[in-house]
Amino acid sequence: MNRSSYYFKLPFIILLIAGLQRSQLGTLTIQGVHPDLLLAGAIVIGLIEGREAGAIAGFVFGLIADSFASIPFGVSSLVYATIGYCVGLVEVTSMPDSLIAEVLISLVGGAVGVAFLEVVVRILGLKTTLSAKFSVALIVVAAVCGIFSLIGVPLFRWLINLGSGDRPPSRRSSRSL
């Protein structure tokens, strides 16, 4: 596998998650809150590939989320990129290599992402539907991020390593499942 095929896989994963969010989960609500696979995707990519890839994926996922939301363009990008970066940073530096740790990081990342988005929206003086259902959104999005990490981390790690050969070095490449 050459470098170009590796760099094709990350955008493919981003498009896959965005497609799932917009098609299947677009109509699904839990207590009036939509599950956020885009934030979960930024978290999973941060877990797999580290802080830089998590930040880039979070930025792209945020742009996709902003294109369908009623908040100013770039707000979700700021939040998702920050969460993707922080998850990659925490996972690389201090957490043990285990599925439980990845799920816990995803749960906390999802909850912090919702809280950070709420803070940014309030600083900008905006009123959204998230404000009215903040506690429900916090629980739903955190749970979705945790559940998605159970499926997404092994699946996307497999996709990235599919046909592995001269893949660019990753901070996460030495981990075992």
From TrEMBL:
Transmembrane segments: 55-83, 103-124, 136-160
Membrane topology: Multi-pass membrane protein
Pfam families, A to Z: MreD
Keywords: Cell membrane, Cell shape, Membrane, Transmembrane, Transmembrane helix
Record-level GO cellular component terms: plasma membrane
One record GO biological process: regulation of cell shape
Location within or outside the cell: Cell membrane
Family: Belongs to the MreD family.
NCBIfam families linked to this entry: shape_MreD
Name of this protein: Rod shape-determining protein MreD
